[in-house]
Write a structure and sequence with these properties.
Elements (H helix, E strand, L loop, with lengths): L6 E11 L4 H6 L5 E12 L4 E5 L6 H8 L7 E6 L2 E2 L5 H10 E4 L3 H4 L6 H11 L6 H14 L18 H13 L5 E5 L7 H18 L3 E4 L3 H7 L2 E6 L2 E7 H6 L4 H8 L50 E5 L2 E4 L6 H51 L2
Parallel strand pairs: 3-8, 3-9, 6-7, 7-8
Antiparallel strand pairs: 1-2, 1-4, 4-5, 9-10, 10-12, 11-12
Helix pairs in contact: 5-6, 5-7, 6-7
Length: 385
């Protein structure tokens, strides 16, 4: 914690108990837990956008909810401005929540359809006793709406959510988060529910607010192209833990974990003539209830080695300054991947060669068959009575 940080997460864990059935409760079986977040550590610096990426179910949203204390952690520490807020309660927790806000994924669900825009944006002001009169709160709500580019604010204050477009609803959600002038914001996939045509506007708005107010973000997304556009640093999550972290360009241009390389290879390229080999991973995501022993990615990893990956927890290796990877072979993966790619290319070339030969032999066979048919027809004509 020598380096100045706004948020510092240390060994954070969140386990959800699995409800036992009637017979299991009588049998007194051992309790099982979903390991949603398991020993996660990272920090967020002033004015920085730190992004969590990964496939659905990896623990990104749960981590965000833990940082805003919408969920109580099972274990670990969350330092906000140097103070551990992981297990705060009562007045101290309420004071912390005034400084930390969250933008939710779905603006259609996060806004109360019975409340006007003014009531929605002013609600946190009322809860935290900001503004003595309705006029003061209306003025603060109007400023938050205009900061979210809903101008003029007077046209939106008394509308209901059903009278707004999807993009406008998400701007109202952003305005609600800004109303208290928080010191930290968690943005949980804020554009995934929006049309592609308006995503760029919301992303640019978030970047402008970061520049204007210096607010750091924890940005959560499954889209690596969005992560690259928004982030200063990226953390790649897999099955409840971070497998690779570092500066955005280092992660994008020089990924070392097999899972990160597979994610990057799956990003679509807007060029129908561009061909790229997909990094293949085996099987499906393991159950977060029964975590694999050793490396969590072992059952799906194309580079896994028995006796090591399936028995020993991988160390966190610094492959370059600030670029951390949780893998037994972190420094060797790029070279191993290139060797595998060359083998794949050879197999593909061999397959194409065999296909061409098969097609050629098939064509030759057709020619022979046609010649035989012609000979047969000539023979029938000559022998006809």
């Amino acid at each position: 914690m020598a380096e100045k940080t706004v948020v510092n997460v240390k060994n954070l864990k969140k386990y959800f108990p699995v409800r036992a059935g009637l017979m299991s409760s009588f049998a007194k079986e051992e309790k099982k837990f979903v390991h949603a977040v398991d020993d996660v550590s990272f920090n967020i610096r002033p004015g920085e956008i730190y992004t969590l990426v990964g496939e659905s179910g990896c623990g990104k949203t749960t981590t965000g909810r833990l940082l805003t204390r919408l969920e109580d952690p099972t274990d670990g520490h969350i330092y906000f401005r140097g103070k551990d807020i992981a297990f705060l309660k009562g007045k101290n927790l309420k004071e912390f929540r005034r400084n930390v806000q969250m933008i939710f994924q779905d603006p259609y669900e996060s806004l109360n359809p019975r409340l006007t825009v003014f009531a929605t944006v002013s609600e946190p002001l009322i809860v935290h006793h900001v503004g003595d009169t309705i006029d003061e709160r209306e003025d603060l709500a109007a400023k938050a709406l205009e900061a979210s580019e809903l101008k003029p604010a007077t046209e939106y204050l008394h509308r209901y959510p059903h009278e707004l477009s999807g993009g406008q609803r998400q701007r109202v959600a952003i305005a609600r988060a800004l109303a208290l002038r928080p010191e930290f914001i968690v943005a949980d996939e804020p554009v995934s529910m929006l049309d592609v045509s308006i995503r760029a506007g919301i992303l640019n708005l978030l970047l402008e607010l970061r520049e204007k107010y210096g607010i750091p973000y924890l940005f959560i997304t499954h889209d690596l192209s969005v992560a690259r556009y928004m982030s200063d640093r990226i953390g790649v999550m897999y099955l409840g833990t971070l497998v690779e972290t570092g500066e955005t360009e280092k992660i994008i241009k020089n990924p070392h974990h097999p899972y990160t390389r597979a994610l990057l290879s799956s990003v679509p390229v807007p060029d129908p003539y561009y061909k790229r080999e997909r990094k293949k991973i085996k099987g499906d995501l393991p159950s977060p209830i029964d975590i694999p022993k050793g490396c969590r990615f072992y059952p799906r990893c194309p580079f896994a080695q028995k006796g090591i990956c399936d028995t020993k927890k991988p160390p966190i290796v610094e492959v370059e300054p600030g670029h951390m990877v949780m893998c037994h072979f972190a420094k060797d993966i790029p070279a191993m991947d290139e060797a595998m790619e060359s083998e794949i290319e050879e197999d593909v070339e061999l397959g194409e060669k065999l296909l061409r030969e098969t097609m050629k032999s098939g064509e030759e066979g057709m020619l022979v068959k046609e010649e035989k048919v012609e000979d047969l027809e000539q023979y029938e004509r000559e022998t006809a009575f």
